[in-house]
Amino acid sequence: MIPRYLVDVDLNELPQVHTEVMVIGAGIAGLFTALKASEQYKVLMVTKKSLLDSNTRYAQGGIAAVISDEDSPDYHRQDTLIAGAGLCLPAAVDVLVHEGPAGVNDLIRMGTQFDLENGVFALTKEGAHSQRRILHAHGDATGAEIVRALSEKTKQNPNIEVWDDHFVIDLITEDGECAGALIQKPDGQKVIVKANATILCTGGAGQLYRYTTNPDIATADGIAIAYRAGALIQDVEFVQFHPTALCYPGAPRFLVSEAVRGEGAILRNIKGERFMERYHHQLELAPRDIVARAIVDEMEQTKSTFVYLDFTHESEETVKHRFPTIYEFCLSYGLDLSSDWIPVAPAAHYMMGGVKTDLYGETEVRRLFACGEVSSTGVHGANRLASNSLSEAIVFGRRIIERIQQLPPMERLHFKVEHRHKTEPARQPIVEKKLKLQKIMLRYVGLKRTAKGLQKGYDELSRQLPIFEASLTKREDYEFANLLTCALLTTQAALIREESRGGHYREDFPESRDIWKKHTVFSRELGITEGHFDV
């Protein structure tokens, strides 16, 4: 059983800080929501690194919204539902496609500069989209531009206080209501922050896997602390592996945007053969899960660790203009995107599931909200449509603030303390524990799964459970405990779901089954090994 709190402290003895709205995390979800909240409230932003460190910063492709006269919300809705493989919540998708354009206008008003061609937005098309509806910035640096604009606004805003380099250990709850959080300062001191509303914007869980496009900070913190606090965790078996991450000696798993394939790049195996026609009629623009598994199949058949992405049909000038970031990064490793075939392989990229929310971002725990990748709003279903993640963050960020406006003032709470005896077991270095966890997840809970492998993975992960009986004091301790929590939930959910759908593929159940058109939902009170289902 995962404990309610990671550390054993008397909450009544710690110093306390009060704020109206607390935003945990940065990225587009945290920055945008904090700025919207600051129009009416005093906001405290808590980041474990800085405003500039998040998955958003690395988002290349862009943000999906209905802008063109040739496009419509109905088209965007249909594309999202098809990609989501039967598990999207239609009402949430309707919210996204109808409110996305207004959210984009908010970003522009906040200073984001999207690329223009002849005075109009330069829209591109990505995999599984039927229309050109992706706005981008500086070619392939959309996320970095959004973070730049929003972080500048945040720093200038007198209603937003930012605590960089602070770690949220746990949420504090009383009778099913969130009262704030227990936070560790850079010097190791602990403090209570009480807030009328708390918004989780902590991003994803890419560090569950050995190979990921995510930064080091993506350690599933939000999912784990929300789970411990009593929120519901939904659909975490659906992990999206981006098909094309750079796979080259000495280089990190740098994302090579789907937009490159959107502009005509093709995939070849190490024999030089184009292969996607054997897998899907949309070829390189098939949904990500299909492309990723096709690449793995080709790698297994040719006994290779990568395939090639071939963009050499485009001129050097066009490549440099459209994908300057990718071009420069590859060039720094001696690879020329315009003349070389680029070695790529799948890497963990995005978690479709997360903390279950309603259509206003509120969780099962009153006054606790979740926004962005940490949340499970129902938009993404079993497989996220490319570039819908940034849209989701701004659309539901706006709705969260609407809901907060309706909250009554929080009554004075008297904290109850859970006391537990902490042991100090012989400790294997956390870095070794983390690497072992990542290897287990890659081997047994990766792109292809089986009951035998998942059970073995779950059993091996369970051997790490004594970490929760240890005295935890450091950030890396908390991060590992959070990763382990999410890894166990993800593995258990994958074991329960006896079918293949979207980002979840079972070799022993290769087909989708109508009886599984339902969500896996976990609650700490039910125990980590028990899932229940919402039809």
UniProtKB/TrEMBL annotation:
Concerning InterPro entries, the annotation shows: FAD-dep_OxRdtase_2_FAD-bd (IPR003953), FAD/NAD-bd_sf (IPR036188), Fum_R/Succ_DH_flav-like_C_sf (IPR037099), Fum_Rdtase/Succ_DH_flav-like_C (IPR015939), NadB (IPR005288), Succ_DH/fumarate_Rdtase_cat_sf (IPR027477)
Question: Which cofactors does the annotated protein need, by name?
Answer: FAD
Q: What chemistry does it catalyse, as a reaction equation?
A: L-aspartate + O2 = iminosuccinate + H2O2
Note the superkingdom of the native organism.
Bacteria
Which keywords does this Swiss-Prot/TrEMBL entry list?
FAD, Flavoprotein, Oxidoreductase, Pyridine nucleotide biosynthesis
Per the entry, what this protein does is: Catalyzes the oxidation of L-aspartate to iminoaspartate.
Protein name from the UniProt record: L-aspartate oxidase
The organism of origin for this protein: Paenibacillus piri
Which gene produces this protein? nadB
